[in-house]
Write a structure and sequence with these properties.
This protein is mainly alpha-helical and 492 residues long. Helix content is 63%, strand content 5%. Strand 4, helix 16 and strand 5 form a beta-alpha-beta unit.
């Protein structure tokens, strides 16, 4: 049974009679055919308390005060490692290996259960505990306890040794523990009463100090009240003087209002005269505009006649020279002439040497009606890849807007993307921003732009991708590296 079973005071009459015998008998462990041997130190031999079938049941374990229960567990945990391994119950063998400070705390439930259920184990523990207790253990075994002994220690030894009258010792220990608790409560109440008295005395002293402060404050307030009354009398005199000055100011204001009314009337008369002169001036200006319009009509007629004469003269000159229509554009002649200049690259190897030269880019952009096509991300990731894509696009488009404004050329920048990305900056004048469609790359879109241009128009493609450069070169475009544009942007 657990160490916290009901006390003898709560047993039925037959249980109390059995407890009065104080035999200290315990039953043998279940399944054991051997009688339990008595513990050392004069403890009664354990016998079958129940006797033959039909006798009274064994008395229940008493309810132990909490200090007694803790002391029993502590004593058992202390001697547990000293027992032979075969004498330690199986549930406690793992507990016996715990550290001393953890054995009693973590193994308390298992130790209590074994002390209640295994009398042989309890006798082995009591034998060692009584030996360690010395004279106190011998006195407890004899059924007596020294008056000066700790009641908790006596009750713990009595529970383990179970001599005659051990229940009385436990009950006496519980009474002593309760008496100590009551004494502690009374001492606490006395201490609280003393503290309340001390606080009351302190509060009275504080109240006296506060009363003195209030008296001083009252005297100061009365003095300030007198000063306020004197100030109120002075303010009253000042108010009367101010009211007198206000009356005089109102009289002066009425005089000034009459004078202002006369000035306003004179100003309105002058305004009417000015408006009349303005109407006359507008009539004169209208007549002048009519005259100027008639003169401009005459000039327009003369200019039209001059242009008509020049047009008829050019038609006659073309008819006289008998010029046939041409298939090539002026840009074709410009591109061919530029390609034939000394030092100008005509082959792929020569072009490759000029791909990163910004001067080469300036020469190409100076051609008439040049079209600049830029591989967007190829340039931005090479020049300012530490920025976000949005910042890269914004910086490149802004720079291309400056080039378009300076050269007047057509500028197209191409980015990879299935659809137009939101958050783009406003497109500068002369710059076209394109995004590749789904299933198409920016390189494919650049090739389509180059193929769509008419033959002879100078098309400059900015990309460091060799495949793109080779592809647009076959269609007559001028491929340049990304560094040439980056240097051009840095320069501007």
């Amino acid at each position: 049974m657990p160490l916290t079973e009901p006390y003898d005071d709560h047993l039925p009459p037959e249980g109390r009679a059995a407890a009065a015998r104080d035999t200290g008998e315990v039953g043998r462990p279940a399944g054991s055919d051997e009688a339990v041997t008595p513990a050392d130190g004069g403890v009664e031999a354990a016998t079958d308390a129940a006797g033959p079938a039909g006798d009274a049941a064994p008395e229940p374990e008493p309810v132990l005060p909490e200090p007694v229960r803790q002391r029993i567990v502590t004593l058992t945990a202390a001697v547990l490692p000293g027992l032979p391994a075969d004498e330690v119950p199986v549930p406690l063998r793992r507990v016996a290996k715990f550290a001393p400070n953890r054995r009693a705390r973590l193994g308390a439930p298992a130790i209590a259960a074994q002390l209640t259920a295994d009398p042989l184990f309890r006798q082995r523990v009591s034998a060692r505990v009584l030996t360690d207790a010395g004279d106190l253990g011998a006195a407890v075994v004899e059924g007596t306890a020294p008056a000066a002994a700790d009641p908790v220690e006596v009750a713990a030894l009595a529970y383990l040794a179970r001599p005659r009258g051990w229940r009385d010792l436990i009950e006496a220990s519980g009474a002593a523990v309760r008496a100590e608790a009551d004494s502690a409560v009374v001492a606490e109440l006395v201490r609280e009463a003393e503290q309340r008295a001390t606080r009351a005395e302190h509060d009275r002293a504080v109240a006296r100090v506060e009363a003195e402060k209030l008296r001083d404050e009252l005297a100061r307030v009365r003095e300030e009240l007198g000063q306020q009354r004197e100030e109120a009398r002075q303010l009253a005199r000042s108010l009367r003087e101010t009211q007198a000055r206000e009356r005089r100011a109102n009289e002066l204001l009425a005089t000034e209002r009459g004078r202002a009314a006369r000035v306003t009337a004179d100003s309105e008369a002058e305004l009417r005269r000015v408006r009349a002169r303005l109407a006359e001036a507008e009539a004169v200006a209208g007549a002048a505009r009519s005259s100027a319009k008639e003169a401009r009509s005459v000039d327009d007629a003369r200019l039209w006649l001059l242009l008509e004469t020049i047009s008829q003269a050019s038609v006659g000159l073309r008819r006289e020279l008998a010029l046939d229509p041409v298939d090539t554009l002026p840009a074709d002649f410009v591109a061919e002439a530029f390609a034939d200049q000394p030092g100008t690259a005509t082959g792929a190897a020569t072009r490759a040497r000029d791909t990163d030269d910004p001067a080469r880019l300036d020469q190409l952009l100076a051609l008439p009606r040049a079209h600049l096509v830029v591989d967007g991300y190829n340039v931005t990731k090479r020049g300012f890849g530490e920025m976000s894509l949005e910042q890269q696009r914004k910086r490149l488009i802004t720079g291309l807007g400056g080039i378009a404004a300076q050269t007047g050329d057509e500028v197209t920048v191409v980015f990879d993307g299935a659809e137009r990305i939101p958050g783009l900056p406003p497109t500068p004048r002369g710059v076209r921003v394109l995004f590749s469609r789904k299933g198409e790359t920016a390189d494919d879109l650049i090739r389509r732009l180059v193929r769509a241009e008419p033959p002879g128009r100078p098309v400059v493609v900015i990309s460091s991708d060799r495949e793109v450069a080779d592809g647009v070169r076959r269609h007559g475009a001028y491929p340049l590296g990304a560094d040439s544009l980056l240097r051009r942007l840095a320069r501007s």
